Amino acid sequence: MSIDVRHSLTVRSGLTILAGSVVLTVALSTFFYQRIFDEQVTQADRQLQQLVATVESSAAVAAYLDNAELATDVVRGLTKNDIVVSAALQSATGMRIVSGDVGGFDEAQLHQFPLSAPFTPEESIGSLSLQPNRPLIEQRAREVAVVYIATLVAHSLVLTILTILLVHWRLARPLTALARDLHEIEPGSASRLPLPTHRRRDEVAQLVDDINALLAATQGTLEGERRLRQYVESVERRFRLIFDHASCGISLVDKNGLVLFSNPSFNRIMSQGRPAADMTNFLQLFDDPAQVNLLLLHAVTEDLPVSVDLLLSGELSGNARWLHALFSSVRNEDGDLLVECILYDISERARREREVQHEAERDALTQLYNRRAGERHLRQALVQVATDQQPCALMMIDLDRFKPINDTYGHEAGDRVLIAVSQRLSQSLRKQDVVVRWGGDEFVVLVFTGKNAEAVPLVADKLLQAVSQPIDLGGGRSGQVGASIGIVLIPEHGLQLDDLIAKADSTMYEVKEHGRHHFSIYREPASPAALNSGA
């Protein structure tokens, strides 16, 4: 029976392939024969155009000058090409030179090319006519097409033979081997039908798979259960490995803030000398327990993850330590809502961020606020002043006699002066006051005076005395500078920083014009009406 199946499949498959190959070859041969024939004829036409292009200049000169000798050379040169039967050059004045077959031109096959004057291309001076050798062109086209079609037929024949052999090799032989192997297998044994080598998912492979599936049904079930048990145990070990060795702290916390479960990293991050018993209350581990409690409730009630940076309790360590916390709700086996807490120690990152912010805001020399950061702090302070109705004073300070020191003793001595003045200004003011190095030897100070208006002159005198103290310039030398201070009162003189700076600056320059090393409070300019009434 196996031999009959093999022969039936081989014969029927071979006949089908052969018939399909013949039909396809005939169709393709007809199509490509005509296409190649047309391409060869078209190529011959292009050759005619190229011939005309090579003699076009000479032909134009001959027609323009009515030079019969030159015209004869042109048309004779064209007829020397075997694809040109005859050629004629006709000038606008009536000259006509013909070469080749003089029996006449076939108007249906005639190719005419207009000629333009050599120096005035827009002027037509005649034409050049060619009679192509159409029989020769078509004969060559047929020869090329026949060679191509013969190649195509030979290629198709070879492919057909190879396909028939492949069907026999890939279909008949595997079925014979499959039948033989199937008879040798005992039902219920562990033996399986081998899949023929180098086969993809075809009918033979599917048949082998189905038979093997029937043979392996019981054994496969048992093996599947065993593999599943091993997989579950492996997953549990992996999760335990991840949980125990994770660099982040992981814990489960109930809605009351009680730590139910935690990994070693959580205990390491949170311990910091705290007894283990004190680590059961999650809320008390942080600097703001109320905030953490609200975050836990939000994670439970909203069922959305909460991400936030939290400061650890000061009892844990002498240094400020920050954690990035991710809170998300989970349910235990009993259906109770718990909060999964994942914690990362970001203390070092927070410290670097503070250092970067400090470097960005501080003047590199004096460590005071630089102008950009100072403007931002001053504007924030003015907003708070407007909200709290708390009076304050803004002082524009410019050093006197600084330039002579800088020019005489050098920039290093000048830097010593600026550093000393900056330190004295900061030491003479309170922590809530703002001191800014405005640029060069100019400083801006915002003093919160409260409702005691008499404190402004006292603070200004204190600053003048502090600035005027001798300063060590290095190398056993000392120097002394003064200061001119322009003062505006807030909110009496306004609340807009740019306007206040301008008023303080103009007041400071008035101080410089009247002797320096003094202070003055801004006065609004008198109106014209007031000046006239005073007169």
Describe the fold and architecture.
With 535 residues, the chain is α+β, with helices and mostly antiparallel strands. The chain has three domains: 138 residues, Beta-Lactamase (2-Layer Sandwich); 106 residues, Beta-Lactamase (2-Layer Sandwich), CATH 3.30.450.20; 169 residues, Reverse transcriptase/Diguanylate cyclase domain (Alpha-Beta Plaits). The protein is 54% helix and 19% strand. The protein is built from 14 helices and 16 strands. Strands 6-5-9-8-7 form a five-stranded antiparallel β-sheet. A five-stranded mixed β-sheet has the order 11-12-10-15-16, sandwiched between helices. A four-stranded antiparallel β-sheet has the order 2-1-4-3, covered by helices on one side. A hairpin with a 7-residue loop joins strand 3 and strand 4. Helix 11 packs antiparallel against helix 12. The longest helix is centred in the N-terminal third of the chain and has 64 residues. The termini are far apart. The N terminus and C terminus are likely disordered.
Question: Which tags fit this structure?
Answer:
single chain, 535 residues, alpha+beta, Beta-Lactamase, Alpha-Beta Plaits, 3 domains, five-stranded antiparallel beta sheet, five-stranded mixed beta sheet, 14 helices, 19% strand
